[in-house]
């Protein structure tokens, strides 16, 4: 979603800002802009579309000397909410005087009333955005002290914000603040970088400060002064990012998504490493911060998330019930937070989020904490808001995921949920022997996934036969039902084919009416309990002309006979098999999208991290 970069320090700041925006492109956006302070004046360049268009615009409009001499500025990628992705709606926005520039992530909910009030005082607005109102509000509050003006303005707004503000009247500083929308400050040598996401900082420094909600910072080239909105100083530690800049490069792959699919044997090995105890037949997840007794006494596990993370939760639900004998349920985070959930101190709520920034998941976490449940998180991004809000949980260690469509984070989420279920299971119904056996199955996951990835060329060939349909159905049973949902989501996200996931038994209750000659049905028919029933459902589809692509267990000739095409999944525990099966569907979606010529890494309208409700 929207991205912020702010920079103050050395010369050639416009290039630094634009390169920073490039690092944030993966988040999804539809226009971009930059404002710099040059010779006492704010100069702005904006463009709809890609950061490359903004870069062309700035280089065409601005003299080369400006690029060379300017040492500070702010920049933004906008994912349209209030008003279409036009040049005028793109950030930065200026105040009435034109001396103050603002970039903003989040939503100002009371912008209409604020705008009406400012208009009655003679302010003129050019855009349809809520952000321009905040820029004017800051200008209106500025009585010669920018920091105070930003505080005063922020006291008047309702909603969420991550902001960076520049004033021609106070040229040596940038003011940045957050509430509900992340801000990270990179502390370099003679330069300071502000960003909504650490990937824009990586090229400069590993030393970062994460702002907390309601923090506001005065940033100069060599200092960061953090206060609260009442001007009381607060202390925030400097953290080490520990991220390799190369991890955020394509490394020879055509797309980040393909790279991330191929990284899965390694990312899964990282997620699993050191977390299995083969002596006790248990999982070691110390970040959960729970005692064996607390786990044994749990009444329920509630898994919450959105999108792909929600699907990981659905696999987890089967694992908790099967392995740990504990009632488990999954709830979409936005629904959970507004439905007044019934929770108590013996409920474990696990928030699942790759980014750790999804607005609905964060709000659901706060709601669950309010209700006194045990709340923990399963995040990929270290130091993210949800990870910090829960204070306990398990990191995925999947490494930076850049492609909007989640792949390696999903499989790591499932692997970690399987380990959590094993940990709970050992405190409840699992014997040591059962535990050891299941731990051995988890240990195999990286190698099982590598076997599927070896079929890349085969899957690419199969994709040709399925790339030209406009509809597709994915079916599965048991833990493969959520895999079907995720397979369909992946396909629709990146290929724009209308794809639906259904429980295999559910197709005949409606969707079967849509099957015509050649409609693709992707059936997950691995050799797990329920396979025979799924084969029966496949025959119902075949009888109506559907073309069946099966995911079958390696060597299962009986299942293969039901399919037009098939992909083999190595034989393993049914819960573990969800991971290699998902990888096969990721590759299928990737190749179909490639054949259709779609923008694989940044699909239209989608954002990597959704920081608005
Ligand atoms: C967006 C992304 C999805 C992701 C979902 C939840 O919609 O495009 O890929 O699954 O947000 O994100 P999270 O970071 O909370 O896992």
Structure description:
It is built from 21 helices and 26 strands. The radius of gyration is 25 Å and the shape is globular. It folds into three domains: 3-247, 4-Layer Sandwich (Glutamine Phosphoribosylpyrophosphate, subunit 1, domain 1), CATH 3.60.20; 251-443, Glucose-6-phosphate isomerase like protein, domain 1 (Rossmann fold), CATH 3.40.50; 450-613, Glucose-6-phosphate isomerase like protein, domain 1 (Rossmann fold, 3-Layer(aba) Sandwich). The mean pLDDT is 95. α1 packs antiparallel against α2 (51-61), α10 packs parallel to α14 (408-426) and α16 packs parallel to α21. The strands form five sheets. An eight-stranded antiparallel sheet has the order 3-2-4-1-10-9-11-14, covered by helices on one side. It has a six-stranded antiparallel sheet with strand order 5-6-7-8-12-13, with helices on one face. Strands 18-17-19-20-21 form a five-stranded parallel sheet, with helices on both faces. Helices cover 38% and strands 22% of the residues. With 613 residues, it is an alpha/beta fold. The chain binds 6-O-phosphono-alpha-D-glucopyranose. 6-O-phosphono-alpha-D-glucopyranose (G6P) binds next to α10.
